[in-house]
Amino acid sequence: MKRPKSGFVSKWGWTLSEWNDPDLVGKRERLLDILRGYGRLAVAYSGGVDSAVVAKAAQVAVGDGAVAVTAASESLASGELEEAQALAVQIGIDHRVIRTEEFADPNYLRNNPDRCYFCKSELYGRLAGLKDALGVETIASGANLDDQGDHRPGMKAAGEHGVRHPLQEAMLTKADVRALAKAWGLPTWDKPATPCLSSRIAYGEEVSAEKVRMVDEAESWLRQRGLRLLRVRYHKGDLARIEVPVEEVAALADVAVRRELIPAFKALGFKFVTLDLEGFRSGSLNTLIPLDRLQAPASASPRLTVV
């Protein structure tokens, strides 16, 4: 990458010259103004790019009045907590870790299409109960504008607990969020989405700690071999369906790779190992949901204010 004549270059090699873009600066200032209006706030912080941008913006907007809170449970992929902790140090925000118990809720384990509602109810309920202990007035999520067009039952839970969505209020898309993250020098600016491990289990198949362990270790095995964008979906009968970008399907189907992959996955507990020829599709399990069970995007949050 050619360095500009002026502008800070971070240790990751990215320049902050993006702040020369008036449009991006305007989006940043709009987000900061919204967060200042929240007062003291807690960010539901997973360490992904969306919540990291909210955490960074909150730290810039209100300083010590912001705290980032990460939920730890069986559904959190290996390494994610450590990455979130390291990034919080870089951001400079106070970081807390709480334990959530969604795996104790039969409604969550049943794994119907509204599973995420019960997960977020557990998270936001605990955060709401900790407001006084954390010394905050507002809870903020990392939901961006693009999330309004997807199946998101967790947004209903957010509305029930008065959670605010600053990225949506600032009309910021996923592309905007990544641009802000890059300009702020956050190393996760191009990190693929990392939803919870339970989202890999086909709806109707009961969620269990054993199944999410199988998925977690299978995805870790693939990442250790250089793959970055991937999913291992769990289907009935201990069947693994691997999704990778279409251009990487042929390499994964190579005889030498399969000779390692198949026994490795079977050692984890999978009885069948399949490779999806359609390639990686975020939210592909949503295609299994009957149309009348899809969560309407308009039910997001009664507190949502678009400015």
Properties at a glance:
307 residues; alpha/beta; four-stranded parallel beta sheet; three-stranded mixed beta sheet; 12 helices; 39% helix; 11% strand; disordered N terminus; disordered C terminus
Describe what you observe in this structure.
By secondary structure, this protein is an alpha/beta fold. It is 39% helix and 11% strand. The chain has helices at 22-36, 49-62, 80-91, 106-109, 115-129, 131-134, 154-160, 166-169, 174-183, 209-223, 246-252, 255-268, and strands at residues 41-44, 66-72, 94-99, 138-140, 231-235, 239-243, 272-275. Strands 3-2-1-4 form a four-stranded parallel β-sheet, with helices on both faces. A three-stranded mixed β-sheet has the order 5-6-7, with helices on one face. Helix 3 links the parallel strand 2 and strand 3 (94-99). Helix 2 (49-62) crosses helix 9 (174-183). The longest helix is centred in the first third of the chain and has 15 residues, at 22-36. It is globular, with a radius of gyration of 20 Å. 39% of the residues are buried.
Shape from CA axes? globular
- The largest beta-sheet arranges its strands as 3-2-1-4
Low-confidence stretches: 1-15, 294-307
Mean pLDDT: 89
Number of helices: 12
Helix content: 25-40%
> Percent of residues in beta strands?
5-15%
The chain-level structural class is alpha/beta
**Rg, please?**
20 Å
Distance from N terminus to C terminus (CA atoms, Å) equals 36 Å
Largest sheet: 4 strands, parallel
How would you spell out the order of helices and strands?
HEHEHEHHHEHHHHEEHHE
Give the strand tally. 7
